[in-house]
Amino acid sequence: MSQSILNTLREEHRHIEGILVQIQACNEIVEKKSLYLQLEEELVPHMSGEEKTIYQHLMKDVHDEEAEDVAQRSINEHKVIKDLIARLDNIGIESDEWDSTFRKLNETIKKHIKEEERVLFSEAKVDFSLEELVEFGEEFIEVKQHLSL
User: Fold this and answer.
1) pTM, rounded to two decimals
2) Who contacts 74 (Cβ-Cβ below 8 Å, separation ≥6)?
3) What is the mean pLDDT of residues 88-110?
C-alpha cells in the first residue's frame, strides 16, 4: 500500500538527520568521507524529487499565492544546500574549512526540514486530499528512481 508523500518525506528526513549526526560524531576521515558521500547520494535525489513533485503541485495546481510562496522558499533553500554541497566537494575533508562548511550545511538542512515539515506540510494538507498526497508519494518514488538510473 502506498503512503502519503508527507509520510515518505518525513521518513527520509529522519534518515538524513541520522546521517548528519553520524558525520558530526565521526573522527575517522575515511568513514566520514563515506558517510558524506552517502548523504550526498541520498539528499540530492530527495531534493530533486521534492521539487518535481510536491513543490510543483503546490506551485501549479493550487493557484494560491501562499502555496506558491511556500514552495518557492523551499526551492531557494535547496539551492543554498546544493551550493554548500558543491563547496564541500571542493574542500579537503580533513580541513577545518570542511568542518565549518559542513556545520553550515548541517544547520541549513535541519532548519529546512523543520520549516518544511511545519509550513509546507501544513499547506499541502490544506490544499490536497489524502488520495492526491498518496499519488504524489508514488510520483516522488518514481522520480527518485529515475534520477538514480
Assistant:
1) 0.92
2) 50, 55, 112, 115, 116, 120
3) 96
